[in-house]
Amino acid sequence: MEYKIDDISDLLSGVHVISDNEDGDGWFFSQDLTTDYVPARLSLNESLTGDVNGARIILISAPGAVGKSVLARELSNKTGSIYLDLSKASSIAGNYVIGGLANKDILSAWNSGTVGLIIDSLDEARLRVTQDSFEDFLLDVSKVSKRNKNPIIIFGRVGIIEEAWLILSENYNINCPVFDIDFFNESEATDFIEKNLLGLSESQRQEYKHLSSSLSVHSRVYKNSIRGVVDELKEISGAESTRFFGYAPVLEAVSKVIGTIKNPSKILEEMKDILSGEMLLSICKAVLSREQGKLTQQLPEKFDSTKESLYSIDEQLDRLACRLFNLPPIDSMSMLSGDLIALYNNAVESMLPQHPFLDGTGRKVASSVFEACILSYALMSDNKIISNAAKNYCLLGVSTPNPFLFDFFVESGGEHGNSMINSSYIGILFDSALSKLKINDSATLIVNDDEDMRLNVEFIISNSNDEDPREIEFTSDGYSPIDLPPGLDTTLT
Question: pLDDT confidence of 492, banded at 50, 70, 90?
Fold first, then answer.
């Protein structure tokens, strides 16, 4: 059964707005209904569930970047409930919630059942506390929930919500229902981009100055073009489509590019050209940068001097590669003193399994686009253990040929001014290029040696819609044999 925000709001129908308290320390009493909110769909988790009617605590989960905080804030806005953002709280432990209600002088109102409470960012708060403190916090929540007829609603990433459900169920005998937030579908993605464009049109940025009048005059053209762009994103995403184009950061990035196109009739045509390695790689890096901020913001002050270097894009890709290839984590914490390494690693191990690049199991990639980002980085890694594992992952048929790997590899190499290629990767990259071809497209691989015994490698990608083929050249030292993935039948010239 599908649920919407209104179904959850109905459970808080007896709540009254608290209008005389100021926001602060993660406690938000102000209401600010938005006009650009795209309602999320929720589904009841049948394996981790309790009775919704009469529930004292309701847990809502989703992978990173799916929109938990946006939904939590909107639910607070709609119902008048307090919004408690744990990512902005100094710490959590026993008596945190009941102490907060008392300090805000609303404990009596809570006991009377006129106050509602939405708790967000459970996973981020968990990074800062010990297991005992976390369990004490949940005990406090369970006790406070029994004082009020309205359910306390808690948001967090999948793993931490599952842990919270287990603690509440086994330790405190509270069998609470769990809802999962679904990824955006095509209709919701279209709506999301349209509303983002409206927001951009109201900004003062120079690149969007044309947008307000253009949206007004050409509204139907925009609607049709955006629908076409979403269809293109869906095709790019493949079998796991919603796990890529259903992510808000992906749609936000696409919205910003569409907003800069001054001729609305050219949107779909230009976006088809743009939705390739360069833009997809930039989207991936935006997601990685977001994750870095999510983790480092929760580290204590003793990490302040090293925060900018921690959980970097490269470190995340190293760690994700190790998980994907079943390798032990790479030690990259030389900048940390011994007493901080264990604390940092505990925080990372709590966060990494719920990374947006991974599916709910924490062991598999969420989409081919994110897989290509990890693979291209790993193949070019200076760490031979990682690069060899990536090569074997591709050559041994662990997954089908990734259609984005070739573009990501080319773009990543170009960023670093690197035109060198390990000759054992030639077949892997050609296999990727072939897997992306459409009807009437073609790909040619030419490998020649020169007088220095180096290999000159040329990939020629011909698109039926392009006048000129795309030619990508590499050089190789030729030390390694050219390995061909399973099923790749080609002739090298």
Answer: very low
What's the N-to-C CA distance of the chain in angstroms? 57
State which H helix or E strand residue 446 sits in.
strand 442-449
Q: What 3-state DSSP class applies to 431?
A: helix
Going from the C-alpha of 405 to that of each of 110, 141, 390, the distances in angstroms are 54, 46, 12
Number of Cβ within 10 Å of residue 233's Cβ equals: 22
Q: Comparing C-alpha atoms, which of 235, 232, 281, 271 is closest to residue 405?
A: 281
Q: Which two tokens stand for residue 109?
A: 């109102």
| DSSP E strand stretches across 81-201 | 82-85, 117-120, 152-156, 178-181
| Residue 73, CB-side half-sphere exposure with 13 Å CA sphere | 16
Could you give the residue ranges of the DSSP H alpha helices within 171-266? 186-201, 211-217, 219-237, 242-245, 248-260
Tens digit of pLDDT for each residue in 212-248?
Answer: 999 999 999 999 999 999 998 888 776 666 778 888 8
- pLDDT tens-digit profile of 137-160? 999 999 999 999 999 999 999 889
Which is it for strands 442-449 and 117-120: parallel, antiparallel or unpaired?
unpaired
**pTM for the full predicted model:** 0.83
Answer with the residue of higher pLDDT: 274 or 188: 188
User: Distance between CA atoms of 253 and 366, rounded to whole angstroms?
Assistant: 18
Residue 316: what are its φ and ψ, rounded to 5°?
Answer: -60, -45
At residue 41, the pLDDT reads 92
CB atoms within 10 A of CB 131: 11
- β pairing state of 470-476 and 455-462: antiparallel
Specify whether the CB–CB gap between 75 and 8 falls below 8 A. yes
* Range with the poorest average pLDDT among 297-306, 322-331, 355-364: 355-364
Question: Between the CA of residue 489 and those of 53, 177, 390, 448, 457, what are the distances in Å?
Answer: 60, 52, 21, 19, 18
The proportion of the chain whose per-residue pLDDT surpasses 70, expressed as a percent, equals: 94
- pLDDT-based confidence at residue 253 (cuts at 50, 70, 90): confident
Helix (H) or strand (E) holding 272: helix 267-274
Q: Are 389 and 321 in contact (CB under 8 A)?
A: yes
DSSP state of 428: H
Distances (CA, A) of 373 to 13, 377, 404, 411, 466: 45, 6, 8, 10, 26
Q: In which residue are the tokens 């790689």 written?
A: 281
